[in-house]
Amino acid sequence: MIKKISHIGIAVRSIDEQMQYYRDSLGLEFDGIENVEDQKVKVAFFKVGEVRIELLEPTSEDSPVAKFIEKKGEGIHHLAYGVENISEAIKKIEQADIKMIDKKPRIGAGNHKIAFLHPRSSFRVLTELTEEH
Ligand code: ZN
């Protein structure tokens, strides 16, 4: 069901402030920036082999990422697993008695279908499934 680690999401106050660190100091390959209206975040991607680092900057105070930073500060926000068929993955996970935040996939960055597990069911590691081809 789970094929790979897709990306690691990191909550940041400002992508601009951290761009130099990831791109120049660590030398990661910058892979674009986009607004994800649905989650009220601006997202910057960096490639590390098959995996990407996803910087999430809130674009509004009521963004879930803004609330996360307020509570816990900047840092690792979520882990995203790549799956082949997200609807099937959601079904399997629910059959295993794991709660989903998203019972149906929604559209995330890069127009990929995504769904989050409930952190209470995933031992407080915010976990995302993403369908990428
Ligand atoms: Zn993500």
Features:
single chain, about 25% helix, binds zinc ion, 3 helices, 2,3-Dihydroxybiphenyl 1,2-Dioxygenase, domain 1, alpha+beta, about 130 residues, 8-stranded mixed β-sheet, 8 strands
Strand order of the largest sheet: 2-3-4-1-5-8-7-6
Class by helix and strand content? alpha+beta
**DSSP strand tally:** 8
- What would CATH call the class? Alpha Beta
Tell me the overall shape: globular
What about the largest sheet?
8 strands, mixed
Second CATH tier, the architecture? Roll
Q: List segments where confidence is low: pLDDT < 50 over at least 5 consecutive residues.
A: none
Quaternary structure: single chain
Q: Could you say which small molecules are bound to this protein?
A: zinc ion
The CATH topology label is: 2,3-Dihydroxybiphenyl 1,2-Dioxygenase, domain 1
